[in-house]
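Render this sequence as a predicted structure.
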Amino acid sequence: MYNLIPPLLRKKSKLHGCIVVIGNETHSLSQLFVDQAHNRAMPVYQVQHDPMQTNLKIEQQDSGLKRVRLNLINPTALKNLVGYIQRTGHSIELCIFQADFSKSLSNSDASAQQVEQLWQNTGLAAVNIAQAIIRQMLIKSQGTLIFLGTQPNLFAENNGLTQSMFASIRALAQSLAREFHPKGIHIAYCMLESWDSQNVVLMDSVKNMCWHLYQQPDSTWSQELSVGV
């Protein structure tokens, strides 16, 4: 029976799991995952958006963390990252996307260029990431994709643009969950009150929540959770 399986599929079935954390100011969270997954020998990739980066740039840190800089709005760059990870003998089992909390815009002050940049760094990046990561997870019908966003109505009324952007990511997560939960892919949206990478308690809470979602059996999968300190 084993010999009937095509060699390419046999190779992919032997891939070991890894963790990918995507977003700005995610070093502390990524390092916590290095410590969490140490016993499982799961590599951790910290991916940061760099619109000027034309080639895949990966740096191995002494702590064991792999830091990656790439253009998240370029689907080819994400495809190259997934390909690199597969060539190292790994598949992405847990991916966390932290949308940019720092770029809130008021309706009155936002220029067309700022609105476009916000959309690219959050909405468009989320779509590109979902496409690349889910495509790879479907190989084994296994994986967890988590979007970190804000709680509804958290932003003031004059920050409707930012509020709308996070609402669109939440809607994306809900749509993906309906489509891919039956196919073995766990999609979740996690609501945070704020993002402070220097807040050790908050980062540990986020890590624990994501790890809890990753370990949930499919019969009890959660689609939304919230974290507070």
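Summary. The chain has one domain: 2-227. The two ends are 52 Å apart (CA to CA).
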